Amino acid sequence: MFDIRAIRDNPDAFRAAWNRRKPGLGDSVDEILRHDSALRKAVTDKQDAEKVRNENSKLIGRAKAEKNEDEAARLMALVAEAKSTIETAGEQEAAAKALLDDLLMGLPNLPLAVVPLGSDEEGNEEQHRWGDPARINNPKDHADLGEALKSDLGFSQMDFDSAVKMSGARFVALRGKLARMERALAAFMLDLQTDEHGYEEVSPPLLVRDEALVGTGQLPKFEEDLFKTTAITQAGLEQYASESASVAADSIEMAIYSDEELEDADKRAVLEGFQEDRSKFEKQQAEEHLQRLKEMFGQSHFLIPTAEVPLTNLVRDQILDASRLPLRFTAHTPCFRSEAGSAGRDTKGMIRLHQFNKVELVSIVENEEAGLAELERMTGCAEEVLKRLNLPFRRMLLCTGDMGAGARKTYDLEVWIPSQNTYREISSCSYCGDFQARRMDARFRKEAGAKPEFVHTLNGSGLAVGRTLVAVIENYQNEDGSITVPDVLRPYMGGLEIIASS
């Protein structure tokens, strides 16, 4: 969301910024102002009518007391007209607010002035490179290498065939030493970010409600990229609640039967008393359980596309003390993406899967100055993973047309992939300003009694584990098809130095 007062005060700045994102998008400002004007008029009309209703309602009683029926009738007509206006204006207010909110929710963040102008990745600017690409004669693709490696049981360590049979295209089952290397990479990344870079490790939910995704900006515009669960029906919830209440009542009766401290006569008395009230007890238990079930299962959930969603929502609906900032979180989670619109791209191998693992980094800071400094720090934290793995990479400053909708400035890290003779994205680190905080109502207070201000948020990959595995396999491949284990991973793999077919 955006500060509507800022748009009113400086519409040209917003128009120019959105046009940098996409030519013509700035025309949304005119529509925003139109809905805003209609909303404010409806609010004013309703408030004026409420004032008329309240003032004349008081006078009606006085006129009746003075037996001035004509005046009372006139005042009653004014009150009736005011009530009609209140109702109409209220409907207009709700309609205008819904249109305004929908429009604002669907618009991307404003790019910073330093972000280069461009419509796609061709407009991105390289910032620097690190490392020399490996000189490998006729490098093999990671998928060919992984499938050729056999596990102790004789299966492919990168098993696409089995995954496709159970889940369809764009899935993989890693086995044996490659599965252990994936686990080792994640553990190494987490240890580096927590032990040396000061991030707090979090194990977050993988299923979230729609409001969490609205908060971070994936909804409402990008729902097609998400996997959604199906809610349990009301009838199903009621049946389960009723059955649970009956089981609870049975447990109480059994406890009474089993109570060795009660005489038989006392047990009968207690049981008869409980059985008289059993239906009342079950009804109350069922109602309470039903409410809990509705909260847990009565609505659809989404599988997270990235841990950015739950990590950023940790500060949702909070007013933080400035002394606690910056907050830095990290998590290793599976990520789930439909890859809508990617048909035909990277259909082979592990570059673009529906399910993949990632170590995510999220920071919560005070303002833009702190946010831009944190972006450099966060990107450096991600780069350090690649440096210690000795994987060549380059840092790219994304242009306006290639940047994510929630970002104001983004760096992509691209790692060298020998088989493709090019660099491919392995991390994206973004400064989002207060874009997400406004949607989540996440604020901080500089000092006691000060007015709360919106925090600024950042997120980045530290790194995409699957793509890092791809890069390691390809950059550390040997002529015989084996894979040398990077030095920093060997402690996580029991000292193993080479992954070869068993």
State the low-pLDDT regions, or none.
none
Mean pLDDT over all positions: 91
Q: Percent helix among the residues?
A: 40-55%
The end-to-end span amounts to 55 Å
Total strands: the figure is: 18
- Given the structure, what is the number of helices? 15
Structural class given helices, strands, pairing? alpha+beta
Rg over CA atoms, rounded to whole Å, is: 31 Å
Indicate the proportion of strand residues: 15-25%
Widest beta sheet: strand line-up: 1-11-12-13-16-10-9-4
Largest sheet: 8 strands, mixed
Coarse shape: flat
What would you note in describing this structure?
The strands form 5 sheets. An 8-stranded mixed β-sheet has the order 1-11-12-13-16-10-9-4. It has a 3-stranded antiparallel β-sheet with strand order 5-7-6. Helix content is 47%, strand content 17%. It has helices at residues 4-9, 11-21, 28-65, 69-106, 142-148, 160-167, 176-196, 210-216, 234-258, 264-276, 278-297, 308-312, 368-388, 435-440, 465-475, and strands at 125-130, 158-159, 173-174, 200-201, 207-208, 227-228, 302-303, 319-321, 327-336, 355-365, 393-397, 409-417, 422-431, 443-445, 453-454, 456-464, 483-484, 498-499. Helix 9 (234-258) crosses helix 11 (278-297). The chain has 15 helices and 18 strands. It is of the alpha+beta class. A hairpin with a 7-residue loop joins strand 14 (443-445) and strand 15. The mean pLDDT is 91.
